[in-house]
């Protein structure tokens, strides 16, 4: 898998202006709200989306923030992964 890079309010793979995969999150004082996750056709079915969600979880834990998995993909990943429950806002 290609390197996951961090930008302002997002993690991405590929070119910053036209990424092959990306997860976008809004930052508030205590919460990261995941608003969008997209993976290009060439990277689909390789676990890239899951790795992007994991990176947001790791960042939130490091910065002692909660996560609101606002997009449907992130919501499904949080529901399926018990280890994410500690950072899930509202759970």
List the helices and strands and how they pair.
Elements: E1 5-7, E2 10-14, E3 19-27, E4 31-39, H1 48-62, E5 66-69, H2 72-80
Parallel strand pairs: 4-5
Antiparallel strand pairs: 1-2, 2-3, 3-4
InterPro entries: Acyl_CoA_acyltransferase (IPR016181), Gcn5-rel_NAT (IPR045057), GNAT_YJDJ (IPR031165)
Pfam families: Acetyltransf_CG
Domain N-acetyltransferase: 3-89
Number of helices: 2
- Main β-sheet, spatial strand arrangement: 1-2-3-4-5
Helical content (DSSP H or I, runs of 4+): 25-40%
**What percent strand?**
25-35%
Number of domains: 1
CATH-scheme architecture: 3-Layer(aba) Sandwich
How many angstroms does the end-to-end distance come to? Answer: 32 Å
Element-level helix/strand string: EEEEHEH
Question: What is the gyration radius calculated from CA atoms?
Answer: 12 Å
CATH superfamily: Gcn5-related N-acetyltransferase (GNAT)
- Give the overall average pLDDT: 92
Quickly give the structural class: alpha+beta
In CATH, what is the class?
Alpha Beta
Low-confidence stretches: none
In one word, what is the shape?
globular
Q: State the total count of DSSP E strands.
A: 5
Structure description:
This protein has 91 residues and is of the alpha+beta class. The protein has one domain (5-72): Aminopeptidase (3-Layer(aba) Sandwich), CATH 3.40.630.30. Helix content is 26%, strand content 33%. It has helices spanning 48-62, 72-80; strands spanning 5-7, 10-14, 19-27, 31-39, 66-69. It has a five-stranded mixed beta sheet. The N and C termini lie far apart (32 Å).
